[in-house]
Amino acid sequence: MYLTGAQNHKAAGIGQLAQLNDEILMSVLGHLDAQSLGRLSTTSKACYIFACHDELWRALVLTEFMGNFHFFHSWRGTYLCRLASTNLEPDSVVEPPPAKKRRASEYSYAINLDNRFFSDLLFQPWFCANVPLCPTWLEVENVDRRSQLSVEEFRRAYEAPNRPVVITDVVGKTREYLLQAYGDRPTIVGGYKMKLHDYYRYADQAGNDDQPLYLFEYFSEDLFAALGAARPDFRWLIVGPQRSGSTFHKDPNCTS
Question: Does residue 110 contact residue 51 with C-beta atoms inside 8 Å?
Answer without folding.
Answer: no
